[in-house]
Structure formats: C-alpha cells, structure tokens
Amino acid sequence: SMYEGLGATTIKGEASFVDQHTIEVNNKKITADNFVIATGKKPHPLNIPGHEYLLTSTNLFELEDTPKNVAIIGSGYVGMEFATLLSAAGVKVTVIVRSGQPLKGFYSQHVHQLVDEMKNSLGINFIFNTNVTAVTEAQTGYEVQSANGNLGTFDKVINASGRVPEINALKLDNAGVEYSNRGIKVDKYLTTSANNIYAMGDIVDKTAPALTPTAQFEADYLSALLTNKTTEPLRYPVIGTVTFTFPQLAQAGISIDKAKEDSNYSIKDIDITQGDFLYAGTDDHARLSLVFDKQNHLVGAAEISQTAVDDINALIPVMAIDVDPEVWKEKMLMAFPGLAYKIRTLI
Description:
Layout: H1 2-5, E1 15-19, E2 22-25, E3 28-31, E4 35-37, E5 41-43, E6 69-73, H2 77-88, E7 92-96, H3 108-122, E8 125-127, E9 132-138, E10 141-146, E11 149-154, E12 156-159, E13 163-165, E14 179-180, E15 183-184, E16 197-199, H4 212-226, E17 240-243, E18 248-253, H5 256-260, E19 266-271, E20 287-292, E21 298-305, H6 308-320, H7 325-331, H8 339-346
Parallel strand pairs: 4-16, 6-7, 6-12, 7-8
Antiparallel strand pairs: 1-2, 2-3, 5-13, 9-10, 10-11, 14-15, 17-18, 18-21, 19-20, 20-21
C-alpha cells in the first residue's frame, strides 16, 4: 500500500482502546506513546421500521440497474448531489427535507434559487418539513410513510440524512477521551482530553467544514507537531466549500447570512450574467455575493453558477492574503474573460 511504501506498518482490523497507551486489534495489544484517531464518519442510521430497505452513499453505486424513480431522505451535500446525478441519468427524483431549507450551511438566498432551478430544470420534486416514519415493502417497490401519510411508492429509497462520527467501536472511555454525538472534543492542538491522543478529520467536533482538504490540512499540522517542527496551535486557513449540484453552490470566508446580521460587514450582491461580468459559460441565473469588513477588505464570498467552484477559488487568495488592492492590480492581470480577471474591479 501507499503507507507501506512510506515505511509504515499497516494492520487490517477494528481497533479499540484498552487504556491511554494501549489499543487492541484482532485480539492483539499494541502500545504507543501517541495515538491519532482519524476514523471519520459513517452514514447516519435511520432507526425507523423498514430501515433495512434503505440505500446509502456506501452502496448506491453497487446497483446493477438504474431505478426509474427514487426517494432521497435528506438534503445535505450527499442528498442534493445524488439528486442532481440521478436526475441527469433520467431518474425521477423526490427529495424529502426535514426542515424548510436544504444545505443549511450555504447562503439561504442561493439555496432557494438552487431549489427552484432543480425543480424547473431537472424536474426534481421537493417535500419540505417532513419526517419519514417508516419504509414498507410494496408489490412495485417501497412505500415511504410520514406523519402526514403516504409520500409515494419508489423503486429505491436512499438514506442521505447525514453522517455521524465512527466512534462506537473505539471504547474511548477506556482511554479517558471525551466525545459527544458530534465527535471527539479537541483543543487548539488537536489534542483530546487524553494528552497523548490526538484526533483529526471528520471525527473531530469542530466548526470548520468537515471536508477532505480540511482533514488533509489537519494531518499536515499533526505531522509537524508530532515531529517537533512546530509548537504553534492550529490555525485554519480560508476554506472553500462547494456542492456539485446543477448549478453549483460555492462559498468561503464569512457566511453571507451571518454577515447580514452584523453591522461590521457590508454585502455586495452582483448579477454576474450582466455587463462586464458576463463571460463564456455563465448561466442565466448566476449570482455572486461578497462580504467586506469596515476596512473594505473582502472577507467572504458565495456564488451560485455553473462555474462557482472555480470562481470562489479565485477569490480565496484575495481573502487569505492581505494584499494592497493597488499592488494586486499592478502585479497581476488574469486571463480574460474569466471571473478571476474581474477581481481587480471587486477589490
């Protein structure tokens, strides 16, 4: 494996703590000065009658035949991206949303626009403010039940209700590691309540986005910390996040919704389908929202468009590096007519 190529020993099995310095794998005890927990998350189990009929992100792609109609329970990253993917494959999709808005972490105005476009362009059906109470096997598929009655019969039902920390098998109490249903608690050095045990990735209870690049950043930090290359606490950079729906949503920095509630910030909403912002590939309803602080520094951005991920990535350096706008304009001239070129007019 890759790890063995780097000189590491790999063991396949389920690990659990015996004490703060010992784990057990395959009935064999292993001791170490330090441990790093990076077990991530798993699909959230729905404890309802008929849960055994539900597919998850783990086994959806094992289907041999494409279903004709599907119900998706949940509307986070996984639920909304699956809805987009399956609809593009010709599947009739219904998304069941527990609250009144999918994708709670994204700018609400953009999310509402996305839902409208997914309805109108892809024909996806959304059922809001609904809890699924049971799934029953029917002659022609599976019936989905809610407190309000039968929601319909579907070829397949997908559980995309979220992900939960992969904790149960670890026996963290034996090592004195504190945790909750949100994950393992750590300090600013990613140290758990046991001072020789660290945690990183999705298993951590944190406010930073639970994303692959975030976990990789934490891994780099822990590598430096444990090899005495740094003694500084972890400081997260500006982190970009995206949902690959149709169209895409992407954002970074200060949340637009939170900025609207804080007088220290001002917000600029831009229709990037008009005027100098229009460029090849822009779809008809693309919008960009920017957050500026009192010093007029760009501190947040969110976009809905078919190129949102690339556009937000172009704006992250502006937020992350304190560059004088005049220096930016003097030293850089981006390729036209991409949005990156228009940064000079935004800052």
